[in-house]
Write a sequence for this structure.
């Protein structure tokens, strides 16, 4: 305010020459103050944003980057949970042994198959549900909120209910199957049955979530596209395939990436699916995922070094998956 | 009109979202409770607070021991946190010990883990030999918690002298004797004889029942009576070459192949249901199992169980109380731990909870000698278990006993009930165990 007033008052003084300028003291004092203010302002403008974003990065450093690097360091050592400070250098041994670790590859295979049989039906069903919800429905908001309910339930509670449903001798699903003449299926001990059961929990939990994402994207598709398609004589199905699907391509890609990452980190559902065997994923490790194997090595068997190496290997696998996704998405974008 | 419906709709949506959110929060709160360590501060009003970290059904609170101690020591306030399963409790305990944080004043340790704790964590735990009276406890129990340098880091709570619980009604239906003396004689001295009795049972068994509940129960029972199992005296892992282990495995696998054993895993919901539905005739039965049977049975099974001596005595289960040095009131905590495991208190605990004392002096007490259980009718359980306890061999225990035992059971003999051959089951178990031990 004061500076504004002074500059406004300055010119007449100069013209008239009545008031002799005070070259050394006045302006310099004023200028210095102004310069100081502007420097401070500049510094403020330049650094404040960093201060505002710093909490995230400080937290990330402490709880993201440091553990990541420390895990890498631990993976090069033989170290047990009973004495985490007692490390002895073994170089890349923890990594090389993964190559002939049958349990690791078994877990990797399980993660892949469970990932596929949970992600594919889940996304297809989500797409169907979103398409139906996109019609004019009574109480559509209710349906939308209801679809998020499985996502909001505690994973532990949900898994425990599913364990009861999938019980071999006294489970509800086998009881229902008996009516159509199918004998008791040993959901926990049979390889495929157990993987399907675990996938069911995943599907149940995430379908609604993905459906809402699809629904949001569908509602952003301009109505005129459908109108002109209808004018051209396209029926509902043709509209879905030729208007809806192409417009949803980026969204589909997003859900595929997110679901893939989720599937590769699958942990809670298989852990709770057989409460007794816990981390071993069934008597023959038939539904042990990589996440479970990592947990078993680190926290049950207390081999921290090996667990760290598994963690890093998983991280590298995820990066590869990410690159593959990126390449595919670029291809898709180029072709469209 | 329109505006009104819109606000109404908004309200409905908000309510829905709020209720979902509340559910979510409630879920989180529930999850949080499970991992323990959530006992609230305060409430003691300037008293010294002693916290206990326990697992399973320790039963100190249920049998009123805390109240009694608080009455004797008005300046003490006792609080406990209980984790249901040791598999969840133990890794957290190890984690807390190695970082010296998050520990309760008293921490319980299971017998399957005590060797590892003694070997790797004894520098973090208080020497309790000044507080507990060594002569009170069974020699081997005291020894299990004593490190090579002579300090004793845990005082024994209960032990698990094993007997056989059997259903008199099912035994009768299959033409077997029902008197506990006669039943014990049928198989006295050898587990082979026990399995032979099983064959006799199965020949005339009531439809839908098996002789035993689960393969895990049988192999556990056999191995718990062996002096050397998984480790030799020098601490070397010998489970693969120890004939006692292989014999126990093969006998169990054979019995499973012959259809004498139900295809259950112990302590799973489906197993509980087989108890409730009376689907098997006998099971290996440490004292604490009586409480479990009682918890899972239907009321009409009361009195139908009886209890006989096992072919060979063994110990299944039992725990220790330890006091971490990092606690605020180690002195008071050690006194409490010693008091809770003194003969008088162990006798009381047996009367209420069925945890069998590790202090022989308690065996003479009326709580033990006159103990009865709804399930087993008038069977003098106290004297039966005391007799079993006398014959328990001093067992060599090793740091990874639990991992090996669990591998043999959950990745081994259980497979036989699922149609695998004994050899496949053994190979699967060995492979799993070796990988877990990092051999």
């Amino acid at each position: 305010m004061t500076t504004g007033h002074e500059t406004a008052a300055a010119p007449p003084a100069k013209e008239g020459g009545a008031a002799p300028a005070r070259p050394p003291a006045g302006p310099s004092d004023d200028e210095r103050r102004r310069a100081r203010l502007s420097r401070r302002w500049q510094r403020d403008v330049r650094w404040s944003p960093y201060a505002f974003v710093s909490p995230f990065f400080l937290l990330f450093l402490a709880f993201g980057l440091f553990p990541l690097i420390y895990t890498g360091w631990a993976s090069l050592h033989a170290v047990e949970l009973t004495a985490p400070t007692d490390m002895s250098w073994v170089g890349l041994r923890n990594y090389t042994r993964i190559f002939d670790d049958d349990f690791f590859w078994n877990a990797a295979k399980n993660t892949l198959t469970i990932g596929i049989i949970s992600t594919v039906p889940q996304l297809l069903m989500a797409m169907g549900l979103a398409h139906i919800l996109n019609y004019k429905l009574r109480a559509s908001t209710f349906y939308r909120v209801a679809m998020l309910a499985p996502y909001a339930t505690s994973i532990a509670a949900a898994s425990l209910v599913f364990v009861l449903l999938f019980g071999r001798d006294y489970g509800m699903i086998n009881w229902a199957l008996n009516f159509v003449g199918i004998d008791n299926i040993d959901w926990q001990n049979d390889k495929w049955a157990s993987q399907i059961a675990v996938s069911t929990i995943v599907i149940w939990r995430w379908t609604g979530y993905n459906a809402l994402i699809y629904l949001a994207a569908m509602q952003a598709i301009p109505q005129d596209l459908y109108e002109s398609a209808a004018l051209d004589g396209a029926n509902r199905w043709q509209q879905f395939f030729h208007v809806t699907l192409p417009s949803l391509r980026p969204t589909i890609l997003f859900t595929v990436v997110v679901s893939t990452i989720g599937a590769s980190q699958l942990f809670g559902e298989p852990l709770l699916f057989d409460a007794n065997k816990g981390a071993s994923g069934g008597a023959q490790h038939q539904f042990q995922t990589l996440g479970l194997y990592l947990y078993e090595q680190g926290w049950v068997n207390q081999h921290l070094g090996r667990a760290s190496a598994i963690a890093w290997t998983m991280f590298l696998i995820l990066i590869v998956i990410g690159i593959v996704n990126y390449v595919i998405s670029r291809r898709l974008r180029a072709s469209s | 009109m329109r505006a009104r419906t819109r606000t109404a709709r908004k309200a409905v949506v908000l309510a829905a979202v709020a209720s979902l959110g509340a559910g979510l929060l409630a879920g989180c709160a529930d999850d949080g409770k499970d991992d323990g360590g959530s006992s609230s501060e305060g409430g003691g009003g300037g008293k010294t607070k002693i916290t206990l970290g326990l697992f399973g059904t320790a039963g100190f609170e249920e049998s009123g021991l805390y109240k009694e101690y608080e009455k004797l020591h008005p300046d003490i306030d006792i609080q406990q946190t209980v984790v249901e399963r040791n598999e969840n409790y133990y890794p957290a305990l190890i984690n807390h010990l190695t970082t010296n944080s998050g520990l309760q004043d008293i921490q319980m340790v299971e017998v399957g883990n005590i060797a590892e704790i003694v070997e790797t964590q004894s520098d973090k735990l208080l020497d309790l030999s000044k507080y507990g009276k060594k002569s009170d406890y069974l020699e081997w129990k005291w020894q299990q918690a004593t490190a090579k340098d002579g300090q004793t880091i845990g005082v024994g709570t209960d032990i698990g002298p094993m007997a056989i619980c059997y259903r008199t009604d099912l035994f009768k239906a299959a033409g077997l004797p029902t008197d506990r003396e006669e039943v014990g004689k049928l198989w006295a001295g050898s587990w082979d004889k026990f399995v032979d009795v099983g064959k006799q049972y199965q020949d005339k068994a009531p439809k839908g029942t098996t002789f035993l509940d689960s393969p895990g129960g049988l192999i556990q029972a056999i191995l718990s009576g062996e002096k050397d199992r998984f480790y030799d005296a020098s601490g070397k892992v010998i489970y693969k070459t120890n004939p006692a282990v292989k014999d126990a495995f093969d006998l169990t696998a054979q019995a499973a192949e012959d259809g004498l054993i139900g295809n259950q895993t112990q302590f799973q919901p489906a197993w509980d249901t087989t108890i409730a539905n009376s689907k098997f005739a006998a099971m290996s039965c440490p004292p604490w199992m009586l409480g479990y049977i009682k918890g899972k049975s239907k009321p009409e099974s009361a009195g139908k169980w009886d209890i006989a001596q096992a072919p060979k005595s063994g110990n299944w289960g039992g725990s220790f109380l330890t006091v971490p040095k990092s606690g605020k009131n180690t002195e008071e905590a050690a006194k409490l731990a010693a008091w809770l495991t003194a003969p008088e208190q162990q006798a009381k605990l047996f009367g209420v909870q069925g945890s069998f004392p590790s202090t022989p002096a308690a065996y003479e007490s009326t709580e033990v000698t006159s103990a009865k259980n709804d399930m087993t009718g008038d069977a003098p359980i106290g004297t039966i278990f005391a007799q079993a306890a006398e014959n328990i061999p001093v067992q060599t225990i090793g740091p990874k006993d639990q991992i090996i035992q669990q591998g043999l059971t959950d990745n081994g003999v259980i497979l036989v009930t699922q149609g695998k051959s004994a050899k496949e089951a053994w190979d699967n178990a060995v492979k799993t165990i070796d990988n877990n031990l990092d051999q």
